[in-house]
Design brief:
By secondary structure, this protein is mainly α. The protein contains 13 helices and two strands, in the order H-H-E-H-H-H-H-H-H-E-H-H-H-H-H. Strands 1-2 form a two-stranded antiparallel ribbon. The longest helix is centred in the N-terminal third of the chain and has 28 residues.
């Protein structure tokens, strides 16, 4: 079971299924888009690791302590969520965490021809902008920062620290992508499935120790950006991306002020959440 959940194995299986699905109806010219998207995802993972691995040597200073302290100011942390969802919960949430790529491919397969290109563009927008944001606020996640003690992390000072690891925490691309699936969900059944998957992804990113809570907040605005970019709504996409960049810059250069004014921080997080819900509601209408 664990071997089947290996990302490489999942990627190969999805590619084979995509090719078989494409060959079932060669007259459908949109189906090759699906196969191309799967190939792009397979190569993107390796390319991202190579680029971010090189970025690690260029950006040895990480802002994980700032993200950790921001979570404390928000009143919720990845560790507290992980402790609440232990045992069998964590096993299933680990499965959910590895299901992102299959869900991305499934969404492409289910969509109408004219919507597949928009969904592919949304994915590409994430792939291109994500690494840039990772480098804007380099961080590696609580499990990589605190190691085995991440569930009971020590008190830390608000400072950048030297850490070896690929910057891949802020914002959460898992949450952004899961939100894109919500935007592109069709009928009520698939909308319910997409919301459940978004909730499961949110929990799994925290219980695995891959992300801080604030990563998810910024991931919501980033997901709105990707969905708008996919629909070619350039002004909206630019606005959502600006919000994501604002979060990155505010935490990198003003974490002390955000922590000092915890009420404003919490209100901003709630506003970002509300903005994302409103964007989904308008898209569904």
């Amino acid at each position: 079971m664990i071997g089947l959940l290996n990302p490489a194995v999942i990627g190969i299986l999805m590619f084979l299924l995509a090719v078989l699905w494409m060959l079932q109806d060669e007259s459908d010219k949109s189906r090759p888009i699906l196969a191309a998207a799967v190939i792009l995802n397979l190569f993107y993972g390796s390319l991202l690791s190579a680029v971010m691995g090189h970025a690690d040597s260029l950006l040895p200073w990480k802002y994980d302590y700032s993200l950790y302290r921001i979570d404390a100011a928000l009143g919720v942390s990845a560790a507290s969520v992980a402790l609440d969802f232990g045992g069998a919960w964590r096993v299933w949430l680990n499965v959910v965490y590895e299901l992102l790529l299959p869900m991305m491919i499934l969404w492409l397969a289910l969509h109408r021809k004219r919507d597949r290109a928009a969904l592919v563009f949304a994915y590409v927008a994430e792939m291109l902008a994500g690494p840039v944001l990772y480098m804007l606020l380099p961080a590696v996640g609580p499990a990589s920062t605190f190691g085995a003690s991440w569930l009971h992390p020590p008190s830390v000072h608000l400072e950048a620290i030297r850490l070896s690891g690929m910057p891949n925490a802020f914002p959460s691309l898992h949450i952004a992508t899961a939100l894109v699936l919500v935007f592109f969900a069709g009928d009520r059944i698939w909308r319910a499935i997409s919301i459940a998957f978004l909730a499961g992804t949110a929990l799994s990113t925290l219980t695995t120790g891959e992300h801080y809570v604030i990563d998810l907040v910024a991931g919501l605005s980033f997901g709105c950006f990707a969905a708008a970019a996919g629909r070619r709504k350039i002004a909206q996409a630019a606005a959502y991306l600006a919000i994501t960049v604002f979060w990155s810059l505010a935490i990198r250069f003003g974490a002390d002020a955000l922590i000092l004014h915890a009420g404003a921080l919490q209100s901003s997080a709630i506003l970002t959440l509300g903005m994302s819900i409103g964007a989904v509601w308008r898209a569904w209408r």
